[in-house]
Amino acid sequence: MAEFRIYFFWEQEKTDLKYTKDYVVDETSAAPILDNTERCGIAADHRGMCRFNNNRLQSFRTAISALRRYARDAPDVTRTRHSRALKALQENKMYQAADNLRGIQPANSWLEAMNTLDAPAMDRVLH
Fold first, then answer.
1. Burial group, residue 9, by CB count within 10 angstroms (0-12, 13-18, 19+)
2. Do 45 and 75 contact (CB within 8 A), yes or no?
3. Can you give 46-82 as a three-state secondary structure string?
4. What is the pTM of this model?
């Protein structure tokens, strides 16, 4: 999960389900405890946890704070990941080239290297 920024929220108030009141999603399902994640309860029922009546509510400030932090960190995170991906691509190309070269037999001499199917025979060029 280290590649992602995850913030789990859960409802702290029971939802009116007409004949009973209960949690629609319990805390353990809504916000599992995982490494490199954040968790926070929202003082609302399931229907109201994403409806912010004003910007002074603690739940609103918590969500906005996380979004601002993620947006602020995004350019550096993207730059780092791009750098890592380029390095991995370059290493992969090097490994592929080395693997391709393993099948080539080295020439005993410069003259032998020049006498390949791709080049004209050197004895014809020299005479």
1. buried
2. no
3. CCCCCCCCCCCCHHHHHHHHHHHHHHHHHHHHHHHHH
4. 0.64
For the chain, how long is the longest CA-to-CA vector? 104
As given in the structure block, the two tokens for residue 112 are 């032998």
Domain ranges of the chain: 6-73
Q: Residue 75 and residue 95: Cα distance in Å, rounded?
A: 30
Residue 23 to residue 14: CA distance in whole angstroms: 5
The neighbouring-strand residues paired with 39 are: 8
- Could you tell me which residues come within 8 angstroms of residue 49 by beta carbon, excluding any fewer than 6 positions away? 9, 11, 42, 59
pLDDT digits (tens, 9 = 90+) for 71-103: 999 999 999 999 999 999 999 999 888 888 887
